[in-house]
User: Fold Related to monooxigenase from Phialocephala subalpina.
Amino acid sequence: MDPASTMSSEQAYQDEGVDGVYALQVEKRYGEERAKRLRPEGNEQYVDTSLSDKFRHFQEDPWAGTTAVKDVKSMFPDNRCQMLILGGGFGGLLYAVRMIEAGVRPEDLRIIDTAGGFGGTWYWNRYPGLMCDIESYCYLPLLEETGYMPKHRYAYGEEIRNYANLIAEKWNVAGSAVFQTKAEKLVWDEATKGWQVELVQKMKGKPPQTLNIHSQFVATVNGLLNYPKLPNLQGVLDYQGEIFHSSRWNYSITGGSQEDPSLIKLKDKRVAIVGTGATAVQCIPHLAKWSKHLYVIQRTPSAVDRRDQRETDPEWFHKEVARSSGWQRERLRNFHQHFTTEEQPAINMVDDGWTWATALVALAGNINGPKSIEELPAYIKKLRTIDLPRHNRVHALVETVVKDPSVAKKLQAWYPSWCKRPCFHDDYLSTFNRDNVTLVDTDGKGLDRLTSDSIVAGNQSYPVDVIIFATGFREPFGGTPAEKANLTITGRNGVSMSQEWARNGPATLHGVLDHQFPNIFLSGPYQASLSPNFLFNDDSLAKHAAYIFAESKRRAEGKPFVVASTADAVEDWALQVQMRSLSMAAFMGCTPSYFNLEGALDKIPPEAQMTMSRSGHWGHGIEDFLGHVEAWRAEGSMQGIEVQT
Assistant:
């Protein structure tokens, strides 16, 4: 580092009231720890289980058959529907609800999903200890409409999955679902003004069924965390013990259930869990409680803050939370205000670890972000200054809770808060005080290999009976809606969405309608905005898409219609996104994670950076984004939208 640069950086920290020498030491350590974890193969260091025949069994549905699944052919008796929704998670349900409010009859839409029931990620993930890390009064959508009161401050997985079913029943879409069914191909048909769709249903114990249907409209709501990934390790298929991915938890191996996480079958077992991210943080305390011995394999420690879980007090909930009409939107707006700008609101309604982490403006977008490349270094310096108190607090929490200083040191995270999704838990850190728990810290390297009966890290071999991969999912922010659903989408004039977006990026208005792919409603986050609460993103875009649909239908006066954004409008919107993109540039230089494509963002050539900046998230935060789209709706002319009959 240039000495003059060091002096100016130190002075910059001191100007912010921070010990400049200490801040520079932290910054230096961030760089050192990042360098340990960078790999030239990037995302190729993982195996996507959905794209590999050898590893596909890791994503088999352990819950298939627990709910009735309708035959695909019986659900499309005339091989058509008005609206096909790809995805049966909360995003798909919210699109269904908002389209029903816009005039679509429940019987005229179909929701398809490869799962065997509603819930999306909450269908697949049923590991012990699973709960949402966003406050349930914010996270669970439609609470005012359903009158539902969450049982805990942070809802557990079973409750969230049941709530998805409650929404499906309340809005009469439970009978519109076609589960264990996947769209393989979408092809635009100009003659019929709709989409030709190839569906394949694979039900356990039955031969696959293929059905070609016509749908006038399609909504792609495939979620973000769909496909489990594994480290590309030597020996995974050679291991002879029990082995599974955390998103397909095998209770026949561990004992217990999500309802009763008594993992009694592990009492004589040596268990290894690979990973220390958000999933592992939640299930490790349960594994430690029941296993004979637990080995926790860590490549990068998570920054784990307090969660302060508690049951919901009904009197408090109705008096302080659900006190008036519009309470949930008001609460969410206040939640977002804590990381939309460095200036904190006077009142903190949620008062949790998210709202204590102001520097997450780097993740959610900052209305006061840099306006030019020249301002970027000072902006990142400012973010790191803001983040230092949280960094110190979380480090101090580890030192306070974990008794062994050497273990505590290994559990301390060295990266800014925005580089990985923050974690919160009340029991994770204290788990490492147990005699039957061993932290296997690989100092950024990860495991070396598996043998028939062991995991191997460095020069040490650990014989184990059960291996659980808590290694996450295919990165959620890359690829098109086609890749997210493992299908092909061919639009006007034979244009492939995968090829077009790879060349030029998406061409949408407000992130919901692409110019070359009419009658497809998208769910972002490309050219839209981002909240830590992904369901709020989905609902915001579902409302917007439903408005566009209803207004287009009104203008079509009962005739079949095609709705798409205009070429001029999408170009203007891309420029608007690009103008705000620098607020998201703090991800450059982060420790590898799915946020920065395992470090690949730093390697993007200059000629591709322009496309990336036009394709990303609205850099001024979700409330500012919604201000723009709500003003657009209020104006009423549907500027930038073309409706053809």
